[in-house]
Amino acid sequence: MPLIAPSILAADFANLQRDVEMINHSAAEYIHVDVMDGRFVPNISFGMPVCAAVKRHAQKPLDVHLMIVEPERYLEDFRKAGADIITVHIEACPNLHRTLQHIKELGAQASVAINPHTPVASLSEILGEVSQVLIMSVNPGFGGQSFIENTYRKVRELVELRADAGVNFDIEVDGGVNLDNAPLLVDAGVDVLVAGSFVFKSNDPVATIQALKGVETD
Ligand code: DX5
Ligand code: ZN
């Protein structure tokens, strides 16, 4: 069964405590926190204070996805704001190895993300340094976009790379996840499903999380 990480980007920001408590009471494993700076991506979401506010009510680990330039400047701040897993983008990190070491020194789990145009092979030298790899299945910046079909092939390639390297990390997919693609993603080898709009725009978010958790595979 996949781990589920609802993205609070799609929550009602005026009722954030209520929405975090909904996740607390659901079958989800993580709370996915999308940080955007208007530089790495063409949209601004929120920063450390909101992350810290979510943390005050969260009963599940915060999976913090940094879609920002120079993420190394803010690692300590996000760790202090309660990040348990910190994801940086390979496209934003000229010194990725150092950045991942820093995340681990801060006591968080290190995770790396790749955009749709970035091949999984570009991760080959740092696969032993991460506990999670995030494959973007939309172009980062906005919730509610449609899923890019190439993602299945990238997941399969990463599963193979992981086996060849003899290392272990979770494979997370983020963007456009719903009940149509979730079974295929889990089949391909995905460990963690991020879902924003599909959870929060549904009539019963707790039931939707449960449905994603229990997807049937072939
Ligand atoms: C996109 C973010 C995603 C987003 C997913 O840039 O990284 O986490 O919240 O939202 P949906 O599930 O609506 O595509
Ligand atoms: Zn995300």
Characterize the structure shown:
A divalent metal cation binds at residues 32, 34, 65, 174. It comes from Persicitalea jodogahamensis. By secondary structure, the chain is α/β, with parallel strands linked by helices. It has one domain: Aldolase class I (TIM Barrel). The chain contains eight helices and eight strands. An eight-stranded parallel sheet has the order 1-8-7-6-5-4-3-2. Residues 7, 32, 34, 65, 174, 194 line the site of zinc ion.
Task: For this entry, give a set of tags.
binds zinc ion, isomerase, alpha/beta, TIM Barrel, single chain, globular, 20% strand
How many structural domains in the coordinates? 1
Q: Termini, distance in Å?
A: 13 Å
How many beta strands in the DSSP annotation?
Answer: 8
Shape: globular
Give the class-level CATH name.
Alpha Beta
Element string (H = helix, E = strand): EHEHEHEHEEHEHEHH
**CATH fold group:** TIM Barrel
Main β-sheet: number of strands, strand sense, barrel status?
8 strands, parallel
The CATH superfamily appears as: Aldolase class I
Total count of helical runs of at least 4 residues: 8
Helix content: 25-40%
Uncertain runs with pLDDT below 50, 5 residues or more? none
CA radius of gyration is 16 Å
- What percentage of amino acids are in beta strands? 15-25%
Strand order of the largest sheet: 1-8-7-6-5-4-3-2
SS-derived structural category? alpha/beta
Spell out which ligands are present.
Answer: D-xylitol-5-phosphate, zinc ion
State mean pLDDT (0 to 100 scale): 98
Examine the secondary-structure arrangement and name the CATH architecture. Answer: Alpha-Beta Barrel
